[in-house]
Amino acid sequence: MRSSLLTIALAFCCSTLSIAQLDQVLKKADDALEHRDTSGLSDDKIVAGLKEALEVSTGKAVALTGKHDGFLKNEAIRIFLPSKLAPIGKGMRMLGMGEEVDDLEIGMNRAAEQSTPQAKQIFLAALKKMTFSDARRILTGDDTAATEYFQRTSSTDLTTAFTPIVHHSLDQVGVVKQYDRVIKNAPGGSAIANEFDLDKYVVGKTLDGLFLMLGEEEKKIRKNPAAQTTALLKEVFGRK
């Protein structure tokens, strides 16, 4: 009974931690892995604590990208015209058609922002499947080991979930028409249109942006020192 109450308390406590405090969770859990004979910490508790920490970090990454201007105003992940269309976009701007190019890019970023919130449940599903071996690799891995875990386990599901949302969003805001107009007015545009999938491009860039932000959140969790931690976390994650 005491063990059950402790586990419940741990879950509640971890869910309210700051980014700095979550760093202490990871460090304490990592120490527990290397000192199993003295920690008395069960595999289940190590995995549970890590899952709670990662639930917070994935939730923050989704919140940062899945809001209005989450992609458009973030230069690190903003979606620009694909490289194949860059010369076309440059030429159109020189001809005074820059507004059409801007509208196309805005529409692509809005589609990304609308699809990203779907990632939350997919990340939670991946966490439920996490094994102790997965947790150990994440805790002892590099600064983006957790992000790599999510890329490996969630990319296919994310692509499946994002694709219809991106397609609907692009169509709804008129991006498809804008794209067709840009291609139609560009030299050699027809050839490019036949070999380029706009939906696939935007979905791919959405995943790239989401995982980039998730990686940044993971680095914060691992590197930011904690000012303090709770007595419960000291009991559960401490070695002594």
* Total of domains: 1
Overall pLDDT level: 75
In sequence order, what are the helices and strands, one letter per element? HHHHHHHHHHHHH
Instruction: Tell me the fraction of residues in β-strands, as a range.
Output: under 5%
CA-based shape: elongated
Largest sheet: none
Give a brief description.
With 240 residues, the chain is mainly α. The protein has helices spanning 2-15, 19-34, 36-39, 43-65, 86-94, 98-115, 119-128, 132-140, 145-172, 175-184, 189-195, 198-223, 231-237. The protein has one domain.
Topology:
Layout: H1 2-15, H2 19-34, H3 36-39, H4 43-65, H5 86-94, H6 98-115, H7 119-128, H8 132-140, H9 145-172, H10 175-184, H11 189-195, H12 198-223, H13 231-237
Main features:
disordered N terminus; disordered C terminus; 240 residues; mainly alpha; 75% helix
Q: Could you describe the 3D structure shown?
A:
It contains 13 helices and no strands. By secondary structure, it is an all-alpha fold. It has one domain. The two termini are 23 Å apart. The N terminus and C terminus are likely disordered.
